[in-house]
Amino acid sequence: MDMDRFFRKSSFSETQSACVEVAVGVAQVAVRDSKAVAGGIVVADSARFAVFLDAVKRGVFG
Questions:
Q1: Which structural domain, as residue segments, surrounds residue 53?
Q2: Kindly report the CA angle at 39 between 6 and 21, in degrees rounded to 5?
Q3: What is the pLDDT of residue 51?
Q4: Which segments of the chain have a pLDDT < 50?
């Protein structure tokens, strides 16, 4: 299966070179480096990824 069609990059990062792409599924979320799409994929449980995103939005990581 061609996974590339499931990944998307944020429209906010179109001019940035340091970006990630995300593929969202029902139970899992996959993330990869947009500059090295063949380099590997990190997969996380959707609920845990939502908690992570919330923490990012609140500035927990700096």
A1: 3-10+17-57
A2: 35
A3: 96
A4: 1
